[in-house]
Automatic annotation (TrEMBL):
Pfam families: Response_reg (PF00072), Trans_reg_C (PF00486). Coiled coil: none annotated. Keywords: DNA-binding, Phosphoprotein. It comes from Nonomuraea montanisoli. Residues 124-219 form the OmpR/PhoB-type domain. GO terms for biological process: regulation of DNA-templated transcription. This is Response regulator transcription factor.
């Protein structure tokens, strides 16, 4: 899952981003509305966490611009003002959810995950394939009852492959969805991560390489 944090309070933005990365998300940060519009024009995001009270380009205009452009990201709007009128206005502009400040970090994580599920085709809360079981909310993956010690990136790649339901996912798509904007597209990052994931999953092999296309979960593994 890839998330954009748009918050002009830099310390808060960096703190929230660090916490979300610990939850296994790929996170970018924009400190103003103009930067947010640049990033959303260039990248695919599942969720945009948007502070309403931004300097320069106001959060309302960012939200409205994303709605007009048909950007697929779900928008979670944050604001220090928590009146009903504020919430109604934000939702009318195209926001999908609303969270007043201050907020509990656990609630922020839960709302982001809920919005991300809504941005994708309907999936069960726990992904199961043969003996493999992956619970994105609990961050637990097992195979044949054996707990898998996966890194955040390995977990994210496995979740993306399972969510594709047997369809091929390209290395570019994995890089876009599981890493942030600082990932170098010319490195072997995806290949190395998939290789480590294969070793941890064990036999019989679950991840198939499709030449010149990408990776997929092997049918009938």
């Amino acid at each position: 899952m890839r998330v954009l944090i748009v918050e002009d309070h830099e310390e808060l933005a960096r703190t929230v981003a660090a916490g979300l990365r610990r939850e296994g998300m790929a996170v970018d940060v924009a400190l103003d509305g103009a930067a947010a519009l640049e990033r959303t024009a260039a990248n695919h995001y599942d969720v945009v966490v948007l502070d309403r009270d931004l300097p320069g380009v106001h959060g309302d205009e960012v939200c409205a611009s994303l709605a007009r452009a048909g950007h697929p990201a779900r928008v979670l709007m944050l604001t220090a003002a928590g009146t009903i009128d504020d919430r109604v206005t934000g939702l009318a502009l195209g926001a999908d959810d609303y969270l007043p400040k201050p907020f509990a970090f656990a609630e922020l994580v839960a709302r982001i995950r809920a919005l991300a599920r809504r941005s994708q085709p309907a999936l069960p809360p726990v992904l199961v394939h043969e003996g493999l079981r992956l619970d994105p909310a609990a961050r637990i993956a097992t195979r044949d009852g054996r707990r898998l010690a996966l890194s955040p990136k390995e977990f994210a790649v496995l979740e993306l492959l399972l969510s594709a339901r047997g369809a091929v996912v390209s290395a570019e798509q994995l890089l876009e969805r599981a890493w942030d904007e600082f990932a170098d597209p010319f490195t072997q990052t995806v290949k190395v991560t998939v290789s480590r994931l294969r070793r941890k999953l064990g036999d019989p092999p679950l991840i198939e390489t499709v030449q010149q296309a990408g990776y997929r979960i092997r049918a009938g593994a």
